[in-house]
Specification:
Helix content: over 70%
Order of helices and strands: HHHHHHHHHHHHHHHHHHH
Shape: globular
Number of strands: 0
Largest sheet: none
Number of domains: 1
């Protein structure tokens, strides 16, 4: 737990995960699911692809955040750790709620106001529902603070027996993959009592699901044999991922009338939650194994991306909603709109970061960047 050697593969997966979030939100106006802005026509194919990536992009990010939390804690007392979490998470969250997110709500309700100033003068009326994509930062703060006792336990000598048992279990061929079983149980049971899809911290079906990955990141951060197992059995995990994906899409495309002839609605939803969790875990195990082969080297590009990715995340949804509002009104095809929205949003976000946020200490601080 005291190791502070940089894991470049995890840095890469963090960057890739947030970029996948960006691409996911680019597709949201066109997949028919409902978003702040919606195109007049939607693409079922796009929705069918996006539903797969939904299963692992955020879980992977929470797992990496759990690992990063341990490294952050190893350099500080628990009081210093809470102060650091508040600085890196709460301050950008508060800044985002009052500055970054309001344009999203304004665009969504633009016909109800004469101007942005007319909307913003009543901003306090929207704060309670105005966190939007920053829910990840809010949840990460709460989960990080709640995880302090667990981190203290893992760092203590009392955890030696636990670490030994985890090492023995995960060193087996299917040991890592078997950890999907508690995940499936957590998701099915919690969804029974909290069926909502919102991401507020009090929605335990969401919090417990993502929290599982966060806790796994904490538990595995200081156990080298876990990572050796992921690397050693990466081909096995890859095959399990393929099988899980086939099961996932077989059930996803199963006609409703066929499924209803076998199971009631509650059972059908439970099966869906189970196969979704199966995909989440199998993909992540595979990525973490192959990442140690493909992504383990440092680079100047990675250093710059790792520094920029947090402000990029905070900015991305606001920028793409503003640009997307005008893009979806054009008489272009969906592929053209997707390309224009993705490229223009990316350029604008990078430009804001490079020439407005990065050069100024105050803005860098408000966007959660570390001191240079």
């Amino acid at each position: 737990m005291q190791k502070t050697q940089r894991r470049y593969d995890l840095d890469w997966w963090r960057v890739i995960s947030i970029f996948l979030v960006f691409l996911h939100h680019i597709g949201m106006p066109f997949n028919g699911d409902g978003f702040h802005i919606m195109n007049s026509e939607s693409s079922k194919v796009l929705d069918d692809v996006m539903v797969f990536f939904e299963q692992f992009r955020l879980p992977l990010l929470f797992l990496i955040s759990g690992i990063g939390t341990v490294f952050a804690f190893s350099k500080r007392s628990w009081i210093q750790f809470i102060r650091e979490r508040a600085t890196r998470l709460l301050i950008p969250l508060i800044f985002g709620v009052f500055v970054i997110v309001p344009p999203q709500t304004y665009i969504e309700k633009i016909t109800s106001y004469t101007s942005y100033f007319d909307f913003y003068k009543n901003i306090l009326d929207h704060i309670d529902i105005n966190i939007n994509h920053l829910w990840f930062i809010e949840n990460l703060f709460y989960i990080s603070v709640l995880s302090i006792p667990l981190i203290l336990f893992i760092k203590s000598s009392y955890a030696d027996m636990f670490t030994h048992r985890v090492t023995a279990f995960c060193s087996k061929r299917f040991g890592m993959f078997a950890l999907v079983i508690p995940l499936i149980i957590i998701k099915i049971v919690s969804k029974h009592y909290y069926p909502e899809d919102d991401k507020v911290i009090t929605n335990l079906s969401s919090t417990l699901f993502y929290g599982y990955f966060f806790v796994v990141g904490i538990l595995f951060s200081g156990i080298p044999t876990v990572w050796e197992s992921l690397k050693k059995y990466r081909k096995v995990n890859f095959l399990l991922m393929i099988l899980s994906t086939l099961v996932f899409y077989a059930y996803y495309f199963m006609p409703n009338d066929m499924a209803s002839s076998y199971w009631d609605l509650a059972t059908r939803w439970s099966i869906w939650y189970g196969v979704s969790a199966l995909v989440s875990w199998s993909v992540i195990c595979t990525l973490l194994g192959y990442g140690q082969i493909w992504l383990s080297k440092p680079s100047t590009l990675l250093s710059k991306l790792n520094e920029a990715i947090y402000p990029f995340y905070i900015l991305h949804q606001t920028v793409l909603i503003i640009i997307g509002y005008y893009v979806i009104q054009q008489p272009w095809s969906i592929p053209v709109k997707l390309f224009i929205l993705a490229t223009s949003s990316f350029i604008v976000i990078v430009g804001i970061y490079r020439w407005i946020i990065y050069p100024f200490t105050v803005l860098s601080f408000l966007f959660g960047m570390k001191k240079k």
